[in-house]
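[Q] Does anyone have a clean structure-token version of this?
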Amino acid sequence: MSAMMNSLRPSLRAASTTARSFSTTSRRDLARMILTGRLGSEPELQATASGREVIRYVVASEHGRTQNRKTDWFRVASFPDSENQKNFLLNLPKGSLVYVEADTSLRQYEDAEGRKNTQLSLVQRNIDVLRRAFIRREESEGSEGSEGSESAEHQ
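[A] Here you go.
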């Protein structure tokens, strides 16, 4: 049996490199990033130059060992398709723990001093709220908040 398996290995290896598994669609190039972190501020509604609504927010993600923890800040843009998606994002409090899937691209530009810079652009495809931050209300006693998982998708 071992000799038979040895004779089949080259053909099995070739088949695995030429076939894509778990997909019936054509192959496409993509650049995607997954972030898990806390909202650094409340999401803000803005308008693009063409007048399209965009919601911008910042996700803080920590990495490194306990003694040398570092925080990276990622700016994310979301283009809501519906009023529900817009309200969902705009009502997320600062500090909420989120899982974000975003399309990425690099944009090169020249600053006022003539230096060339590269900026990472993240456009949200999906966001899951892993834990909502507690909201303190000055007019009420105690704090209010909830834990759980919520999500909004962007296609």
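[Q] Thanks! Anything notable?
[A] The domain at 29-133 is CATH 2.40.50.140 (OB fold (Dihydrolipoamide Acetyltransferase, E2P)).
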